[in-house]
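DM from R.C. (forwarded with permission)

"hey, sorry to bug you on a friday — could you get me a structure for this? deadline for the figure draft is monday and I only need the backbone to look sensible"
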Amino acid sequence: MNARAERALRRVIVTADDFGLALPVNEAVERAHREGVLTAASLMVAAPAAADAVARARALPTLRVGLHVVVVDGTPLLPPEQIPDLVDARGMFGADLAGAGVRYFFVPGIRRQLEAEIRAQFAAFAASGLAFDHVNAQCHMHLHPTVFGIMVKVAREYGSPPMRIPYEPFAASWRATHDARGLRFANAYLLAPWLALMKLRLRAAGIAHNDRVFGLGDSGHMTAARVRALLGELEPGVTEVFFHPATSHWDGMTDALSRYRLEDEFDALLDPGVARALGEPGVERIAFSDLTAARA
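My reply, with the result:
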């Protein structure tokens, strides 16, 4: 491939978040990889169905798996007495992202607890025997400077796996969907200075990353029709398209997640039209670890 063709190539990473959260999620990940277009999944190592997810991943050697770091809205790996400033009375991470963000900045000693929890999650992933394809965070919490700094530090000790940059281009996502204009504008432009700095820091640390994502303004609503429209807006470079699929809802899921169209997102990963869009000339479906291999 000549240099001009290389620059024009549209590389796409298709990822499922929340691998290990529940059996319907794990079932969707396995089927979407076997029968559909799913490239990779992001594993929550402390989630209730994490062991089942690891077993499925070991039986699917072509499925790439990364670490989905959880420091909000989920289950910690460490016991509450080791991270008292991170968890609520139930020993869980709370779902108040803004409140957590403020605490992570200002509570004395909380950075040590965050680093201990994040290190424990990296170590648990490594102990699974799975290769790190990538790293990202629940609710994109690696946008928080404290969390991001710790994740970069620890990632370098585990081979510097690539990291998600949650930048969704406003014009492309708006043309594809014509909804949520304010949210899309805020995601694209208000975060732009920090996202640019994140990219610089990742490059300085030798950590690869994607150029952009689709799925940020449409989390929980990545239907087949919406995904086909978004894929029609692909640009040269590396685009991650991420999903939250499940084969069904389940008892005990959070109110926020219960409002997601999880089954529709699963169907989108099996949709023939989505597969055709990803098979067009000039489009290449890859994984995050392919970025590291290409750079080596």
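R.C.: lifesaver. The CA atoms of residues 167 and 192 lie 8 Å apart.
me: no worries. The mean pLDDT is 95.
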